[in-house]
Amino acid sequence: MAAVSSRPWPFKTIFITGCNRGIGLEFVKQFLSLSNPPEHIFATCRSLERASELKSLSEGSSNLHLLELDVNEIETFNQVVSEVDRKLEGRGLDLLLNNAGIVDRSTLDQVTAEGMMNVYKTNTVAPLMLTKAFLPLLRRAASQRNNEDSAKTFIVNISTILASIAENTGTMYPYRTSKAALNMVTKSLSADLTSDGVMAVALHPGWVKTDMGGQGGNLTVKESVEALLTVIGSLDESKNGGFFDFSGKALPW
Questions:
Q1: Which residues form the signal peptide (predicted)?
Q2: How many other CB atoms are found less than 10 A from the CB of residue 204?
Q3: CB neighbours of residue 86 within 10 Å
Q4: Please, is 160 exposed, middle or buried when counting C-beta atoms within 10 Å of its C-beta (0-12, 13-18, 19+)?
Q5: Each residue of 176-217: pLDDT tens digit?
Q6: 214 by DSSP, 3-state: which?
Q7: Using CB atoms within 10 A of its CB, is residue 144 exposed (0-12), middle (13-18) or buried (19+)?
Q8: Residue 3 banded pLDDT, cuts 50, 70, 90
Q9: Cα separation, 60 vs 62, whole angstroms
Q10: Please, are residues 14 and 86 in contact by the beta-carbon 8 Å criterion?
Q11: Prediction pTM value
Q12: What are the C-alpha distances in Å from 214 to residues 8, 22, 34, 135, 220?
């Protein structure tokens, strides 16, 4: 089971993108394994036919709902939100976890305009527009919380230390710039939505051994997500607008 904080898990309704493999799939597994799992977990992937492990998880979990979603098909977002709204039956969405993303490691000699735009759409534009589509449900969740609730409604954007301008060592132009832009989106959301009780943070999962991260990583998917759940489970207003790694350490912009 994930090594979350000792307080009760604060998010009862969760929406996650990119759950067919890697970090997204592990998030689903560990959310389900919590001693007090979320009441509704909405897990998305581009094709349920190719997500056999995700489908097997849903067979014995009434609180896990699977939805097909290609984050590049922005015109479908409102339909997805409507499906989630129906399932929630008047409740709001406590946690939006924008995890789906792609990597392009192009160097200065290799980078193309088309490559830049493709990665920017997936890693920056899609999370922003999905967040915008979910705003009614996020605001509803925030309005439904009691004043004594320790947690708030959160948008969590999965970023990377490679998005840090201060730590930049060059190359990987499409990936670095798209995630740096996602960090700016996160910061802007944190400013715009504070009055609504909705917070936003960017999290670096570490260098994880996944198809995207490669096998040179120093963290397994399980280790990364266990640590991220500890960070997410302890989020509060003091973290709003921040950029943190999997241990909760603040990262330089």
A1: none
A2: 23
A3: 8
A4: buried
A5: 999 999 999 999 999 999 999 999 999 999 988 766 555 666
A6: strand
A7: middle
A8: very low
A9: 7
A10: no
A11: 0.94
A12: 34, 11, 28, 34, 11
